[in-house]
Design brief:
The chain is an alpha+beta fold. Helices cover 42% and strands 19% of the residues.
Length: 338
């Protein structure tokens, strides 16, 4: 019986060595080591071997299996070496390699990183929050009444359970105040979602950056100085900035901010870039009620908040007239920024 196993081993090794491609090698493996292979059939004969001969028979089986497996591994390596040589046959290895094109950052990434760097130097910390939000964090805590247009299903993406895709990153400000005590100085970059039709200036998903500073004796002058410095650091020291009275439910007083855009060959024009204001005391009262303490008592603290669209900042920075190329991944457009 052991002589028969040795014959199987010799036949298997010879068949493996004769294989000249991966397919024939796999056929040899199945023929000898497969479930219905020759060695498996021989192993099944163990039950007919005399008790005193079984140790020798088992040792012969193991030896044959190891030898066949080793032959398979060796042949696999040989075939791989031959395949590698074939793949470079006819190639002049002395030729200089083709230069690979260097990648670059997306314009939105560039503008976001620059904005974060400027604001971090001014003492703002990064904060983050969920994109699927509750109505409380997105609207109620921000003093937004139930009949406000932003709460309409025509403007906001709602889920069946009552949750929604956040319409701004102001919800991060609420979550930050729920879990921290003053002073709070944070910025919250991230995606926001609104039911806007796609056109040259609107997308249903856009990138926003909002900021919040809460402490004792925070004044409107602090807000004005912060945003003027930020916008001049972003667009140049000679950038003109103006504040226009506006209305937001969560700030009072509220302002929209414009910068004067100067394009060669055209008359300078004012472009809206951000909204801001002093945090409405009603927001602090809501936070205090939610927390169950007086850490954000509107009688003892004040604060300001601001928000801007990063997509809009990028369009102003590089004179992009249509927002859609920012999401279309056309390399001919994106290569301009790398």
């Amino acid at each position: 019986m052991t002589d028969n196993i040795q014959s199987i081993q010799n036949e298997a090794v010879a068949g493996i060595n004769a294989a000249n491609d991966e397919r024939s090698l796999e056929e040899a493996r199945v023929a000898f080591l497969g479930k219905k292979g020759t060695l498996a059939s021989a192993s099944a004969g163990m039950k007919d071997v005399a008790k005193e001969d079984k140790p020798a028979f088992g040792a012969a089986l193991n030896k044959a299996r190891n030898a066949i497996t080793q032959a398979l591994e060796t042949k696999t390596k040989e075939l791989q070496i031959l395949a590698d040589k074939k793949s470079v046959a006819g190639i002049d290895l002395t030729l200089p390699p083709r230069e690979l094109a260097a990648g670059g950052l997306h314009p939105l990434t560039i503008i976001k990183d620059r904005a974060i760097q400027i604001l971090r130097r001014m003492g703002f910390a990064l904060a983050d929050g969920p994109e699927i939000e509750t109505e409380y964090h997105c609207f109620d805590a921000l003093n937004t009444p139930h009949d406000h247009p932003a709460r309409n299903e025509k403007d906001t993406f709602y889920f069946d359970g009552g949750k929604l895709l956040r319409t701004h990153t102001s919800s991060v400000q609420i979550r930050t105040m729920e879990n921290n005590t003053p002073p709070v100085r944070i910025i919250a970059p991230g995606s926001a979602y609104r039911r806007d039709d796609v056109d040259a200036t609107h997308l249903p998903v856009f990138n926003q950056l909002e900021g919040l500073y809460v402490d004792q004796d925070v004044k409107l002058g602090d807000l004005k100085g912060t945003l003027e410095y930020f916008l001049q650091a972003m667009f140049g020291d000679d950038t003109e900035v103006r504040f226009r009275p506006h209305f937001f439910p969560f700030t009072e007083p509220s302002f929209e901010i414009d910068v004067k855009l100067k394009i060669d060959g055209q008359e300078p024009k004012w472009i809206e870039v951000a909204g801001c204001g002093m945090v409405d005391p009603a927001v602090f009262s809501s936070i205090s009620s939610q927390r169950g303490d007086q850490a954000f008592n509107p009688e003892s603290i004040t604060g300001y908040a601001f928000g801007m669209g990063l997509d809009r900042l990028a369009m102003i920075q590089w004179g992009i007239k249509d927002i859609r190329p920012l999401i279309e991944n056309d390399t001919r457009f994106l290569q301009q920024f790398s």
